[in-house]
Amino acid sequence: MAAGPRATADTAPAAGAGEVEGEHIKPFTPEKAKEIIMSLQQPAIFCNMAVDWPAQHWTAEHLSEVLHGKQIRFRMGMKRTDTVPQFETTCGYVEATLEEFLTWNCDQSPLSGPFRDYDHSKFWAYADYKYFVSLFDDKTDIFEGVIWSDFGFPGRNGRESTLWIGSMGAHTPCHLDSYGCNLVFQVQGRKRWHLFPPEDTPFLYPTRIPYEESSVFSKINVVNPDLKRFPRFCKARRHMVTLNPGQVLFVPRHWWHYVESIDPVTVSINSWIELEEDHQARVEEAITRILVCALKTAEDPYNTRAWLNPTEVEETSHEVNCRYLNRAVSALFDYYRTSKVVEVQAMRTNREHMKKEGLNVHNHMEMEQTGSQDLSLGVVKQEAASLFGPDLVPVILTSEELPSKTGSIFEGDGKDFVGEDGEHSGKLHCTKRQRMMSKSEDAIVEQNASNSNMAPSQTLISTDDLLDCLLNPQVTRIVAQLLIQGRSLWF
User: Fold this and answer.
1) CA 181 vs CA 40, 48, 140, 251, 348: distances in Å
2) Overall pTM > 0.90
3) Cα Rg for the chain, rounded, in angstroms?
């Protein structure tokens, strides 16, 4: 399919357009912005909401002056186009200042210093996941430069934010975040986002190796996929957009995303917004942690770095992990006790439904909220959809075929894309979750069929193969629900 014009967010008014000198009237009040965020089920770009933030001036050059030579850890990856994702466990790392990074990034490959082993023409650098509270621990006044309260979260600023600084080609592998939703403010340069809805999880081949709490990775390099090994990926619905300076991207809960820097220097600031669903998600993550650590340490107790993400530095003993699970379960029930009665009743309703259905696995995978909640949310979703325009741009389905082996990808056009089922994907993404189930079953059959053609030596089941099944997000959700069901007899 031929690609249309570039995504509408690229052609949206630049930050500050229409601003009256000395004042700026934002397109959405904090209350309205939060309402949109809490109801929208599709990624979208907010424009003209951060034009008065001090953080809009935080280029890499400016931050290098603010940090006064402070050392930062950079992840070093190869500029290559093969089909294997570059997970953090396969990257190199250097400790360097922003000044040293900027010098190296100007194609001045040094003969000495932290970047001496990394040819700029072959490598990219990424200072990712840098928490403000650690980076600016002696300059807390800088927190006020990020004003998430404009989006309806009073008091939220840089203290709850993370900084990302990268060179061209720097990227994060495709993954989903277990907790919350995400707001991303682009400060300098542009980033291209490849997003996939939660319903496409079976087509993304999820894995928990490498293990990182709250991150479920995909086995696929989504910009250059190996369709012979991962044939179901061709059914994944890619949503793609380029995030420009001054814009804020909203990423809904559990949307898969691959993010790449497409300018020489990029700076982004993000904040993960907590959601009510996080309480159960923490139980699921605790179960995941126990199983990963138990099986992988038993397999090779002396080589945890082969499977443990560098961001995971906490102790992984079984005793510690069990305490973590118990804390997560206790926190969940504390939340239930202090929640509205209707929320507790919803849990009981879910439990009764599980008994009624005889613990049918596929039904549990797709457990929905109560009908009354869906009905009220549906009204809010329709209201949010009517707000789309120059200041709120939906990220729509990409109208292109799978990327070629060269990795070139075109972005979707600005029109509503009509999917195979006749729905307009330019509107809110409201695809019923039940559709995923038949696709999930087909995915298992096709994957088994493709595996049957492998040589006998390749069919041996490894620990990672077992973990991919045990820790599929759908399976851990069922386990967590069964665990909660057993404990909920107290109610």
Assistant:
1) 11, 21, 25, 6, 26
2) no
3) 23
